[in-house]
Amino acid sequence: MRHSLSLSNPIIVTFALVVAAVRGAGAQLPAPVGLLSGSAIGFSVGKFVPAGARVGEGLTTVVLHVTRLEPKAVGLDVAVGMWPNGLSGGALVLGVDVGGAYNIGVPGATFLLKAGPSALVAVGMGGGAGAIGAHAGGGAILRVGPAIGIRADLVEHYYYGAGTGGDGGTGFGALSLSLGLTSLSRNH
Fold this sequence. Notes:
Strand content: over 45%
Number of helices: 2
Number of strands: 8
Largest sheet: 8 strands, antiparallel, barrel
Oligomer: single chain
Shape: elongated
Structural class: mainly beta
Helix content: 10-25%
Order of helices and strands: HEEEHEEEEE
């Protein structure tokens, strides 16, 4: 699956600016101590990009992330994404990822290797549709305050039997990119 990333893309530029601003603000905070552990719950905004499309052509998503951080272990990772533009068309479209996330921690941050089953669900006045699949990817959480962090995720998805022709097809792949804020447990 081929995806096209470009530095002229507003998502990439926004991500770079947010990281730079937070790192600059973080220099004024006391240095975080210890590995991140406990719960990480927050919202992200991102793009869901079908295979072969450019990032700018992807659908904007709002994602709720709930992750159990276990240093050097696998914790539960759940993400529920919603496509706001679906609502304007009279449909509720959700993407759900449930799986495990291996926590590679360093003081004040963590890197997540994640994988598991996925589902797409669409419900509207005319009925509903859905597809099942799998996801694999990674993420990072950087603590920027005692109980808050910045979270970024990059995840590849593949959905089975969800062709775009409405005939069940053979499936399709997509890349999701997201950036947001997360609350962090204070136990570290």
